[in-house]
Amino acid sequence: MNAVMKAPRLVRYAAGVLALASSNAWATHVTEPARWQLNLTPGVTVTSQNAYHAHMIMLWICVVIGIIVFGAMAYAMFKFRKSKGAVPDTNFTHSTVLEAIWTVVPILILIGSAIPATRMVVSQYNADHDAKPAEMTIKITGYQWMWRYQYVGQDVDFISRLDRESDRIRQAGSTPDAAAIPHYLRDVDRPLVLPADTRVRFVVTADDVIHAWWVPALGWKQDAIPGVINEAWTEVSEPGTYRGVCAELCGKDHGFMPIVVKVLPKAEYQTWLAGQKAANGETAAAVAVQ
Q1: Which of 40, 128, 151, 258 is the most buried (most CB within 10 A)?
Q2: Model confidence pTM above 0.85
Q3: Domain span holding position 68
Q4: Using CA atoms, how far apart are residues 135 and 196, in angstroms rounded to an integer?
């Protein structure tokens, strides 16, 4: 009878474990946060994946250390408790071997983790890698409360700000319809468009106060400081739409300064770029006539 009753419980436990595993596997292919998410997502760039892997390595190292330390504590408290007749060892001094072990092992762990971490950080800030230099450059300028994107050498220059419908709803104090506006306060009127499988160099600055350009799926955040040019790079292999925010408190509308990056296959990107150049040419011609 007990065996019969335990079987469904074991099945439920197994189903729960499989569900958790499948949710983790699913999370590795998305970049948007999910309800009850317990871990980072790998993102869509080498930089973001390096950060994810470094995080997971250190997490499992900490888990092993925790099991050993708390396991030893639990064993000692259970095995040598007073109720079993244990008495304090007043003659105990110390163990040189043990002290050497718990001093050397953490040092080795720190050195072993510092070396790959340093390589990853250096790679993150090396926009013009010798093996693969940047193929295009985009200048990002932060304003209160919008972003300006300039495609250097391509004659494409535009402002990206909170989409008009989100702005209207939030200023009216209305409740947004989640079905009609799934990305309320996280969408823009003109996204930054990038080609897939292309190393893109960014130069980041600001015109008024300090901002910070941050798209989690890309795996990096860069400050936008007036009078200072900061540098970053990215290369996204998977086309899609990736969202971010200004991550530096920049004034009363700081929370309404989203970022949207749209990555297109190279052929579609070239079509988009040609359309932008044509539109800019028509605008310039109209201004000249006036």
Answers
A1: 258
A2: no
A3: 39-87+94-124
A4: 12
